[in-house]
Amino acid sequence: xxxxxxxxxxxxxxxxxxxxxxxxxxxxxxxxxxxxxxxxxxxxxxxxxxxxxxxxxxxxxxxxxxxxxxxxxxxxxxxxxxxxxxxxxxxxxxxxxxxxxxxxxxxxxxxxxxxxxxxxxxxxxxxxxxxxxxxxxxxxxxxxxxxxxxxxxxxxxxxxxxxxxxxxxxxxxxxxxxxxxxxxxxxxxxxxxxxxxxxxxxxxxxxxxxxxxxxxxxxxxxxxxxxxxxxxxxxxxxxxxxxxxxxxxxxxxxxxxxxxxxxxxxxxxxxxxxxxxxxxxxxxxxxxxxxxxxxxxxxxxxxxxxxxxxxxxxxxxxxxxxxxxxxxxxxxxxxxxxxxxxxxxxxxxxxxxxxxxxxx
Length: 360
Hints:
The chain is of the alpha+beta class. It has twelve helices and seven strands. The chain has helices at residues 2-42, 45-48, 51-61, 63-69, 71-94, 97-100, 104-136, 138-144, 157-176, 179-201, 304-316, 331-359, and strands spanning 209-214, 236-243, 249-251, 264-265, 273-276, 280-285, 320-326. The chain is elongated.
């Protein structure tokens, strides 16, 4: 059975091997240049005092290759649709099940062989690609400094995604019995599960830490930090709410309102009182230099006098920022938790496929 399953899968395996070779060549050719640029330009940038522009140039220069690394986001979905969904659905459409499914025990052995061969190939393909992508991106990730932003495409979790997508494709193929509809359903279902997990499950795999601080103006040059962000920029932000003096939530995402806006509507006359949008009327007058043309608002880049007036106004309302976050030291714990979650889902889907095939 294993030999037969391998013969039926060898074309897909050859395509997967070819894709890995292409990416291995691409990563191998470019990695030395990435590392050289990192060591010669980014590392010593502190000596010339221009790290911001240097690091931005480094990240933007390799944006194209970083998009190639993002292929690992789509790879599990492609595996589920093109390797998993046709595995059983194609047998229904071609009618070969009449030969292989004459006995229930034969059905189980036949499906077990196919799952073992194609499932192992899925895990190996994505695992090797993730290994290469993580190796190539090591310098890029150090400069980026936000490991949770690339959580889905690094290290071990892509293997869990691949096995889940493959098992999902097989299960949908068993149910739908038609290849193209099963492939489409796999794409959609996989995407929905991934988005739901990322938004609603991953942030709560462990109880988030909480940081309560004074609300600061979210622009450079003000008193305090440049934004109401986490204590560590490498953290995974779960929520960032703004509370008024009475403890009522008046803003999300580190600002005021649902989208985290931060605006001051200035008066039409010089020396008038501005209005802190979503909060209230400022008790202090703003300087004449802060008054823009009628009907406009200040969003960023104010002068020193305006910054001082804004901070005075903000302080008068006694606003508080409450941040819930997952710290960087939980990164690998989350990798293992998420890998285990998707492996469990893959196992449950595989058990369902065996049960359905045996009964039907």
